[in-house]
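Practice problem 4.
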């Protein structure tokens, strides 16, 4: 089959999102895959305050590298649109922009034609702003895969514009997939659409291959409590800092963009390592003792399907999380919940006390959530008998 992904995150970026993993498995199965990430615009280069942020520059760099079709080591073609205006707050907060933004400076319409993807078997979209690409592709099946409540997130356009655009997409798509039970309920109420839950998975091969102990761990004699991920506005930094203050008997390792800037340097039992390549993440997880997911209790976070859960789990880590609705619904025995520093620390201690048992449970449960099994389910629920659009 010929399959196109319209994704919010470039494949060559630091974080590897669901579309990255799904596209990998589909390419391994022998399908031809074209991957189109979130557009680059002229205004990305005019945002002077953000250009000082290393993570923001990394995103731009990852998109610049694929303005022309580029086949990566997984045999997937990457192509980033270069548009005039972004779909964002301020004067660009209009749902018509992603509906009518057909002109791209790098003419991806011509490139899609040259690549032979004007007629495809399947399009999988998780970035609302890429809806304009529908004008360039005839496909047997158009799938909208919602991974978050985008309208509740602080980045991007406003809630009204995103919801109006998502309604258009839901009306157009042959099937709507969501990654959590709260998202399914939300889409039913908001868009009157019957969606199918297909949760995020885990790259089983990547996280089960044994890695050596990271050098950053080698002189630490205390139990290592690990968080891997971004320290953006979804992260509860105050909860982490107050939990760490309560005892010096544990050492907290924080791996991810923004950690060096946000973690106070005078906190003796927290080490902020900053960003690390995806290839190094299994080593940090395999040699830690407990994994953390201290996210703020917002509507957007409650609807998330955190990939980190089963990545921690495959590496044998018990997990302590804030009480997110989606995770509570799963009833995973290796995940415990707390919202306040004192109880959060208690759950960490309890996880350490039961570490061997919880580690076995974590590995056993997480093995059933591989991205290959998720991809097989995707193909089962998206039969390709429809006529071309």
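Answer key:
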């Amino acid at each position: 089959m010929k399959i196109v992904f319209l994704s919010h995150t470039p494949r060559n970026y630091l974080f590897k999102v669901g579309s990255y993993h799904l596209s990998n498995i589909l390419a391994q199965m022998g399908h031809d895959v074209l991957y189109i990430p979130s557009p680059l615009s002229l205004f990305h280069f005019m945002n002077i305050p953000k250009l000082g942020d290393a993570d923001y520059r990394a995103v731009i760099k990852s998109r610049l590298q694929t303005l022309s079709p580029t086949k990566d080591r997984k045999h997937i073609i990457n192509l980033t649109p270069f548009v005039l205006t972004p779909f964002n707050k301020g004067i660009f907060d209009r749902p018509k922009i992603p509906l009518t933004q057909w002109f791209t400076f790098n003419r991806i319409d011509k490139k899609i034609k040259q690549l032979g993807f004007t007629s495809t078997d399947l399009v999988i979209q998780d970035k609302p702003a890429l809806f304009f690409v529908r004008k360039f592709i005839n496909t047997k099946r158009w799938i909208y895969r919602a991974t978050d409540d985008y309208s509740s997130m602080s980045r991007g356009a406003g809630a009204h514009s995103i919801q109006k655009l998502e309604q258009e997409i839901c009306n157009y798509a042959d099937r709507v997939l969501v990654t959590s039970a709260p998202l399914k309920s939300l889409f039913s109420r908001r868009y009157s659409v019957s969606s199918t839950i297909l949760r995020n998975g885990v790259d089983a091969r990547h996280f089960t291959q044994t890695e050596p102990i990271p050098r950053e761990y080698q002189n630490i004699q205390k139990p290592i409590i690990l968080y891997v991920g971004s320290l953006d506005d979804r992260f509860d930094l105050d909860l982490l800092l107050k939990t760490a203050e309560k005892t010096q008997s544990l050492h907290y390792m924080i791996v991810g963009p923004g950690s060096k800037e946000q973690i106070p340097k005078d906190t003796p039992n927290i080490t902020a390592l900053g960003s690390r390549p995806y290839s190094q993440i299994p080593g940090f997880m395999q040699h830690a003792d407990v994994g953390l997911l201290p996210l703020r209790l917002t509507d957007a976070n409650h609807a998330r399907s955190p990939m980190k859960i089963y990545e921690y789990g495959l590496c044998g880590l018990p997990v302590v999380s804030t009480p997110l609705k989606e995770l509570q619904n799963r009833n995973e025995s290796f995940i415990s919940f707390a919202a306040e520093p004192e109880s959060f620390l208690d759950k960490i201690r309890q996880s350490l006390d039961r570490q061997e048992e919880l580690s076995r449970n974590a590995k056993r449960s997480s093995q059933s959530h591989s991205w290959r099994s998720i991809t097989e389910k995707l193909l089962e629920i998206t039969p390709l008998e429809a006529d071309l659009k």
